[in-house]
Amino acid sequence: MSNLMIELHLIQNFAPSCLNRDVTNTPKDCEFGGVRRARISSQCIKRSTRLCFRDKGIEDIGKRTKLLKSELARRLSDLGRPEQLSAALDAFLETYYSKMDAQRPDQTAVLLYLAEPEIAEAAQCVREIWNDLSAVAEARGGAQDGSKRTKGLELKQDKQIAERLRRAGLSADVALFGRMLAENPEMNVEAACQVAHAISTHRVDMDLDFYTAVDDLNPASETGAGMMGETGFNSACFYRYSVIDRNQLIANLGGDEKLADTVIRAFIEASVEAIPTGKQNSFAAHNKPDFGMIVVRKNGAPCSLANAFATPIRIKPGSDEDLIGLSIESLCSLYPKMKQVYGDGGVVHESIWHLGHGDRLGEMKQADRKSMTEAVDAAMAAVARAASEV
């Protein structure tokens, strides 16, 4: 089977906002090309995207949680006494997923990323090995805090159970973004999609909004605010990049090519529409991308175009130049140069859509489409053709 890569390149300009905060409660940033850039983390982008999947016809999305024990206990409430069930589930989770949190025994030590079919299969497995789990729970004295656990009271992993859990079925987002369980590497899922941190195409300085809130019940004779504080924010034009390995996605989805292509389309559309929710009640920065490009490669290596902005985009003082347009122009200028120097890299299709920036496309005008929908349709048709060719 030919290896197909589907790349998504976006230029997206946001009004003043604080979409993704760091530990200091201010917008994330980074240094690139010798200057500070605004940044939105890939984790933030992926969460926004996966939550948008349902609007794209992908109903089954995974759950990221430390509370699997509580969910299983709810589904298995008919088994044993509550304290016995709790200890039995501890043994099951520690054997097949993760240790329990020493401070919060109702939670796993790490976040688990699971699809509904796997949660259902886990509940069924607990039922089937209940006698073994009960024996371990009884030997531990039903302790929930681990204080009575002794060496030799661990549940031995059943390879068949582990394989059933692994093959239970992955949701679209788990299949795309993968997961890692350091304590049980056999439960790892290799990600089919890589998402870059979004970075601004230009230098960005953070601004501070000093705000005050009035106490409406203050007597008229009293002056001053009921509360005051500061919020960091910025405004930036971002370059966003992601790439999907179609073969890996098909493998993660149990060989279902049709479902894989449905997920690819949903991911592209959700990536365009999903916007991080950070501080949106204060800023309402709901800005769609001004430019998008989909590249389909067959047996070629993916290529980010972030270096189109290694030299930050600058607007000359007093000019009426367009930051968005200059960013699009820089990206569309680098892409043909990369192909000229390194070859086409297996490119079989290119689709572009934009909001009135046709004069900025340069050599890429031939890839221009009338709308995002037309661009996605053309790209998915190219994927189907390339996949069918020997």
Structure keywords:
390 residues, alpha+beta, 9-stranded antiparallel sheet, two-stranded antiparallel ribbon, 12 helices, 11 strands, 20% strand, flat
What does this protein structure show overall?
The chain is an alpha+beta fold and 390 residues long. The chain has 2 domains: 4-19 and 31-41 and 191-204 and 230-388, no CATH class; 64-170. Helix content is 35%, strand content 20%. It contains 12 helices and 11 strands. It has helices at residues 42-51, 68-75, 82-96, 116-128, 130-139, 159-166, 172-177, 246-252, 257-273, 280-283, 323-342, 372-388, and strands spanning 4-17, 29-32, 35-40, 63-65, 112-114, 193-195, 198-200, 207-213, 227-245, 291-298, 347-354. Strands 1, 2, 3, 6, 7, 8, 9, 10 and 11 form a 9-stranded antiparallel beta sheet that branches. Strand 2 and strand 3 form a beta hairpin. Mean pLDDT is 90; it is low at 143-152.
